[in-house]
């Protein structure tokens, strides 16, 4: 099969028939063999009934129905697990992404050798309250993830080589960082394509402004786990030791100054009367806490069942024992 289209959706009943028709039209015109996997993320409207009817009419239109609402990432992850096409395309169900982009995305994966191609809504039809924070967010994401050529991490329209979606796990709200997840899994050929974007036709947006707060927190988590997940002591140990040593030196200095003044008959103050003493005490305490956090992190990492999971691309001449 050439293409699997994965569509996560939550209360998008009005858009579905139009979307399905549009995808079918594009697939037919380009003679692709395809499937569309609608993942109904616990919609409370008619979405599932619409999907059932669509599927009865055309068996290439398939559906998965969550019993309750989990979020876009779990919906994508579920679709990915079931996708069989050589190229997997994700798109939002609200008709903001255009199926007309599919042939070019497919070509970029199969002919230009990209592992992942992300859409870039250069001209957006969203309110300003969304587009400005989005710009900031993408600039941060570019810096932190080191994927310098992406302008729109969270674009719903993306294309993947099948292997990519089988090797990444999208959970929580991590759909915003799929390119980074792919990069962490060793898929480095990540490209971008400018895509058409349209205003939402039916229904309302499912994400509020809290998306930006959560987005930044998730980025911090991914950065940390990606860099230090397997060796937490390298992070905590470094900062812990630095703080402890700094505090220790400061305490010694405070003590020496007192002894020096005492010895020379100068005026001197007690060590506990110096504000520096308390600062260094705090530093040493915090430093040891960091160090301990590092140890606990190491204990957890050592027991992780995935501590020896590596992304192996190919093997040659190895007999499996
Ligand atoms: N969506 C979902 N589960 C949710 C929230 C959203 O499957 O809990 C789907 C939604 O139906 C749409 C896509 O994710 O197909 C993108 O959502 P939306 O259009 O509301 O986001 P925006 O365009 O405002 O970024
Ligand atoms: Mg939308």
Give the topology, please.
Blueprint lengths: L2 E7 L6 H15 L3 E7 L6 H11 L3 E5 L6 H11 L4 E4 L11 H9 L5 E5 L7 H18 L12 E4 H6 L10 H7 L5 E5 L15 H19 L4 H31 L11 H29 L18
Helix pairs in contact: 5-8, 9-10
The structure holds uridine-5'-diphosphate and magnesium ion (MG).
Overall SS class: alpha/beta
Bound molecules: uridine-5'-diphosphate, magnesium ion
Indicate the CATH class of the largest domain.
Alpha Beta
Assembly state of the chains shown:
single chain
Number-wise, the strands total: 7
Spatial strand order of the main sheet: 3-2-1-4-6-5-7
Number of domains: 2
Radius of gyration: 27 Å
CATH architecture of the largest domain: Alpha-Beta Complex
Keywords:
binds magnesium ion, 321 residues, binds uridine-5'-diphosphate, 2 domains, alpha/beta
Question: How would you concisely characterize the structure shown here?
Answer:
The chain has 321 residues and is an alpha/beta fold. The protein is 49% helix and 12% strand. The chain has two domains: 3-228, Spore Coat Polysaccharide Biosynthesis Protein SpsA, Chain A, CATH 3.90.550.10; 233-302.
Structural notes for this entry:
The structure is a single chain. The protein has 321 residues and is of the alpha/beta class. It has two domains: 3-228, Spore Coat Polysaccharide Biosynthesis Protein SpsA, Chain A, CATH 3.90.550; 233-302. Helices cover 49% and strands 12% of the residues. It has helices spanning 16-30, 47-57, 72-82, 102-110, 128-145, 162-167, 178-184, 210-228, 233-263, 275-303; strands at residues 3-9, 34-40, 61-65, 87-90, 116-120, 158-161, 190-194. It has a seven-stranded mixed sheet, with helices on both faces. α5 (128-145) runs parallel beside α8 (210-228). The mean pLDDT is 94. Magnesium ion binds next to loops. Uridine-5'-diphosphate binds at residues 8-10, 12, 41, 69, 71-72, 75, 92-94, 96, 156, 205-207.
């Amino acid at each position: 099969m050439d293409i699997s289209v994965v569509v996560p959706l939550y209360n998008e009943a009005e858009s579905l028939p139009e979307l399905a028709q549009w995808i079918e039209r594009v697939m037919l015109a380009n003679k692709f063999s395809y499937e569309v996997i609608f993942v109904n993320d616990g919609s409370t409207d008619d979405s599932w009934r619409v999907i059932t009817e669509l599927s009865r009419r055309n068996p290439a239109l398939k559906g998965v129905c969550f019993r309750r609402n989990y979020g876009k990432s779990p919906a994508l992850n579920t679709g990915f697990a079931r996708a069989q096409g050589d190229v997997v395309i994700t798109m939002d169900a609200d008709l903001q992404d255009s199926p007309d982009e599919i042939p070019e995305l497919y070509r970029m994966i199969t002919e230009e050798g990209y592992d992942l191609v992300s859409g870039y809504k250069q001209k957006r039809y969203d309110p300003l309250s969304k587009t400005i924070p989005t710009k900031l967010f993408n600039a941060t994401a570019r810096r932190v993830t080191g994927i310098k050529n992406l302008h729109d991490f969270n674009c719903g329209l993306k294309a993947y080589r099948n292997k990519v979606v089988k090797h990444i796990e999208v959970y929580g709200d991590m759909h915003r960082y799929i390119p980074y997840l792919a990069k962490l899994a060793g898929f480095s050929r990540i490209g971008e394509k400018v895509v058409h974007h349209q205003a939402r036709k039916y229904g309302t947006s499912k994400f509020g402004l809290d998306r930006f707060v959560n987005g930044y927190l998730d980025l911090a988590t991914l950065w940390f786990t990606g860099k230090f997940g397997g060796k937490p002591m390298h992070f905590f140990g470094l900062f812990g030791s630095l703080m402890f040593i700094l505090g220790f030196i400061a305490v010694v200095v405070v003590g020496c100054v007192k002894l020096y003044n005492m010895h020379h008959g100068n005026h001197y103050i007690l060590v506990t009367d110096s504000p520096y003493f308390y600062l260094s005490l705090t530093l040493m305490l915090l430093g040891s806490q960091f160090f301990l956090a590092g140890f606990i992190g190491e204990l957890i990492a050592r027991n992780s069942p995935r501590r020896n999971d590596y992304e192996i691309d190919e093997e040659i001449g190895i007999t499996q024992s």
